[in-house]
Amino acid sequence: MATATTEKVTFTLPAEMVRQMREVVQKGSVASQNAFVREALQHQLKRLREAEFEREMEEAARDPLFLQDMEECMHDFRFVDAETARMIAADEEFDAQP
User: What is d(CA 90, CA 97) in angstroms, rounded to the nearest whole number?
Assistant: First the structure.
């Protein structure tokens, strides 16, 4: 398993925020201050990536060329989709037999 490289950085945070973080660590909710900051950053980065993806999807939903391409794909795969649905239904019927 590869070890992730780390980098030491310094931040300036409001004293009350630091106090609350230390309190959470002392209660054992988080292993360390480093873990607390790492988890908070991971959560925020994930939230920002998801928001960006949502914006991109909203933009695509207004793009006539993208919508046309999606319509063509749906049309091209309609028979494959129908066959797959039949196969799934047949498997479910087989699995339901005593």
Answer: 11
Question: 77 pLDDT exceeds 70?
Answer: yes
Give the per-residue pLDDT at 78.
78
CB 72 within 8 A of CB 65: no
Q: Smallest Cα–Cα separation from 12: which of 35, 29, 32, 37?
A: 37
State how far the Cα of 43 lies from the Cα of 85, in Å rounded to an integer: 37
What is the C-alpha separation between 85 and 15, in angstroms, rounded? 59
CA distance 16 to 21: 9
User: Radius of gyration of the chain from Cα atoms?
Assistant: 25
Q: How far apart, in whole angstroms, are the C-alpha atoms of residue 47 and residue 66?
A: 25
Alpha helices in the chain (DSSP H): 15-26, 33-60, 64-76, 78-96
> Does 32 have pLDDT greater than 80?
yes
